[in-house]
């Protein structure tokens, strides 16, 4: 028998994953039902077979349910997998152990998917030559005194973007398109725009091959990345060199922080890339299928699916809760991220029985963790099985993607009548949803568009989705879009319709920036980017999804408008209040914090089911901040609004979305002397007070 190449010791079970020290590497993995475990070592990421297989002895290499081994003097950069042997009585116990499968370390921080073939991992038997594998990497990164930022969400302007798609288009002009480094090159653009945080669509390593068969046959892939398999590793496809993915991500974060911009990660803890019964075995299904997933109560070979993705992580099992918290801590402590947005977060609120729990351990553990107390936590407060918790998500710190805000503002701007009372509530921070539970305006993440749905351009250009390119006969994606094409479906040369569409886009941006709460922009909306009516481009890693940087010049007027609206918001603290408006004077002020109007002063149309008009006056919230007056006309006819008198001050026209020059800097504003001002149809007007 050949002697092993390396001396080994029993190792330690107190740190999972591969831990590098001066004299070797400690490997540790969790598996409750495994009876035997082997560690496979590879020289290169493309090696089809291991050069060394180390068999663990359960008497000395197992402590409780942890398997561990220390390999002395193992070279840095070595690739590895695990193999586990044990029961396969899946329908009875849920165990899916297959002694021939090459298993990825769930705690791996660097992985390679160069050889990965999903189909082979879906079938029983040996897949070692086509498996993903982890890599041993010594961590000696120099952060140069960088620390996570703390920019309060109360003052945040979030920009949702896809790392790959942001610079993959040929027009981006970056040295390494589609990478963390490419994003870094574009940070000055984001600084100039005025955003405070980027929210990155999934960057934890995911499976691009996770798409329906007919979509795969068309040559498409899982582009968005909502198919995570490794929760500690950056996606290698976003790195210039896969082995350096971790440090390239850190370089990007460090550059964002130098620019004063925080980094929020979109994390997918609700399901994994392993899918359902017929999905691949990557790691969790083998190491602890019955622990990590919700399984059918009667047939344990089946998965309870609350996510629409084949499986649901059993997040409130103590082991899984610990795993997920450790992942968050890793990204804060070792990757310096500033917060997290949790995809389909209501799935995390489901207990082990599948029912929603208001005191779900994982959610409260995240909220109450001292080490996460400065990290932003944002919930997509629904799941795919009907659990909708917007305004009622467990906890107090949790901010929420406010889907009700999106739907109400979309309906109002397209001209739906009778929306005025709820528009006022949404624009003032959704106090009906948050104030009664002691929460704040910053708990509401306000958005009009996001990655999932129409872009802003398509929202005003299409009445229906057009997803034929996805290969699913237009069955995928949302049907309830609350959009309006302004008279013609899709592209048109009609100048009147083009002008109306751009005005409507400006209306959406204006209302978003004039609302209490936290505004979120979708990348590309600032340059009026279209996806040709496709509202579900999850599989489109092509020019349909990529940011087209030529639009910066083509649609420069839209870009300048968005910059101006962000600047207006930032120069008015009254738009970013940390408490809800009361309609009464604040301490030190003689005027109420807000006064509601309709077309006439102090006569809001709360009960008029035909009304499409709303106005309000905001008092300044800090010393030397002057009042702001906002008027909204979403009717199809012009109408004259009464203007409130302001003793010792005069109004200046800061914004008129129907104008050829919609946004005006304070120094260039035209003074308004009239007591009424006519608003064009479908328009927003803002007046800023200044000394007479």
From TrEMBL:
Q: Name one GO biological process term.
A: glycogen catabolic process
- Alphabetical list of Pfam families matching this protein: Alpha-amylase (PF00128), CBM_48 (PF02922), ISOA1-3_C (PF21156)
Residue stretches making up the Glycosyl hydrolase family 13 catalytic domain: 160-569
Protein's UniProt name? Glycogen debranching enzyme GlgX
UniProt keyword terms in alphabetical order:
Glycosidase, Hydrolase, Transit peptide
Query: Does this entry carry the keyword Transit peptide?
Result: yes
Q: Please state the Enzyme Commission number of this protein.
A: 3.2.1.68
Family as reported in the entry's similarity comment: Belongs to the glycosyl hydrolase 13 family.
Question: PANTHER family in the record, alphabetically?
Answer: GLYCOGEN DEBRANCHING ENZYME (PTHR43002)
The Gene Ontology terms for molecular function here are:
amylo-alpha-1,6-glucosidase activity; isoamylase activity
């Amino acid at each position: 028998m050949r002697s092993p190449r390396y001396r080994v010791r029993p190792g330690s079970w107190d740190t999972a994953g591969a831990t590098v020290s001066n004299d070797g590497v400690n490997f540790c993995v969790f598996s409750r039902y495994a009876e035997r475990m082997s560690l496979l070592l590879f020289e290169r990421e493309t090696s089809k077979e291991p050069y060394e297989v180390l068999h663990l002895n359960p008497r000395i290499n197992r402590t409780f349910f942890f398997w561990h081994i220390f390999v002395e003097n193992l070279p840095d950069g070595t690739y590895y997998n695990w193999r586990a042997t044990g029961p396969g009585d899946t329908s009875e116990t849920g165990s899916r152990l297959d002694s021939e499968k090459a298993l990825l370390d769930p705690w791996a921080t660097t992985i390679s998917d160069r050889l990965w073939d999903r189909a082979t991992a879906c079938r029983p038997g040996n897949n070692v030559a086509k498996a993903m594998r982890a890599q041993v990497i010594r961590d000696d990164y120099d952060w140069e005194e960088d620390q996570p930022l703390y920019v309060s969400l109360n003052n945040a302007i979030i920009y949702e973007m896809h790392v790959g798609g942001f610079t993959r288009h040929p027009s981006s002009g970056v040295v390494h398109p589609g990478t963390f480094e490419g994003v870094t090159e574009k940070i000055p653009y984001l600084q100039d725009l005025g955003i405070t945080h980027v929210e990155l669509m999934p960057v934890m390593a995911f499976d691009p091959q996770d798409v329906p068969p007919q979509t795969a046959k068309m040559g498409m892939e899982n582009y968005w990345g909502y198919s995570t398999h490794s929760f500690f590793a950056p996606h290698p496809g976003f790195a210039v060199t896969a082995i350096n993915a971790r440090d390239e991500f850190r370089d990007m974060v460090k550059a964002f922080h130098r620019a004063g911009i925080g980094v929020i990660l979109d994390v997918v803890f609700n399901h994994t890339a392993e899918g359902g019964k017929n999905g691949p075995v990557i790691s969790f299904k083998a190491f602890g299928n019955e622990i990590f997933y919700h399984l059918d109560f009667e047939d344990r070979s089946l998965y309870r699916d609350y996510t629409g993705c084949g499986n649901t992580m059993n997040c409130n099992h103590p082991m899984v809760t610990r795993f997920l918290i450790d992942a968050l801590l890793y990204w804060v402590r070792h990757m310096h991220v500033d917060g997290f947005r949790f995809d389909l977060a209501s799935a995390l609120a489901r207990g082990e029985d599948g029912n929603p729990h208001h005191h779900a351990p994982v959610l409260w553990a995240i909220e109450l963790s001292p080490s996460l107390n400065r990290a932003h936590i944002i919930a997509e407060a629904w799941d795919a099985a009907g659990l909708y918790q917007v305004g009622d998500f467990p906890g107090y710190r949790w901010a929420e993607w406010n889907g009700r805000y999106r739907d109400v503002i979309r309906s109002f701007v397209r001209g739906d009548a009778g929306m005025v009372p709820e528009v006022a509530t949404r624009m003032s921070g959704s106090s009906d949803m948050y104030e009664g539970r002691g929460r704040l305006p910053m708990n509401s993440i306000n958005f009009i568009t996001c990655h999932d749905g129409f872009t802003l351009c398509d929202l005003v250009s299409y009445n229906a989705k057009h997803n034929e390119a996805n290969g699913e006969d237009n069955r995928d994606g949302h049907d309830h879009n609350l959009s309006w094409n302004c008279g013609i479906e899709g592209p048109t040369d009609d100048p009147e319709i083009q002008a109306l569409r751009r005005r409507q886009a400006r209306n959406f941006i204006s209302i978003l920036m004039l609302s209490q709460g936290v505004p979120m922009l979708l990348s590309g909306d600032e340059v009026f980017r279209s996806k040709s009516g496709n509202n579900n481009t999850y599989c489109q890693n092509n020019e349909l999804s990529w940011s087209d940087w030529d639009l910066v010049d083509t649609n420069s007027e839209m870009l300048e408008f968005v910059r101006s609206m962000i600047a207006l918001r930032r120069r008015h603290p009254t738009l970013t209040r940390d408490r809800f408006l009361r309609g009464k004077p604040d301490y030190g002020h003689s005027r109420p914090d807000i006064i509601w109007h309709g077309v006439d002063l102090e006569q809001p149309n709360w009960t008029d089911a035909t009304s499409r008009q709303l106005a309000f006056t905001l008092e300044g919230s800090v010393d030397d901040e002057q009042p702001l007056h906002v008027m909204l006309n979403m009717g199809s006819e012009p109408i004259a609004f009464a203007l409130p008198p302001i003793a010792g001050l005069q109004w200046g026209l800061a914004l008129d979305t129907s104008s050829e020059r919609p946004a005006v800097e304070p120094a260039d504003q035209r003074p308004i002397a009239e007591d009424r001002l006519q608003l064009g149809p479908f328009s927003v007007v803002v007046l800023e007070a200044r000394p007479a």
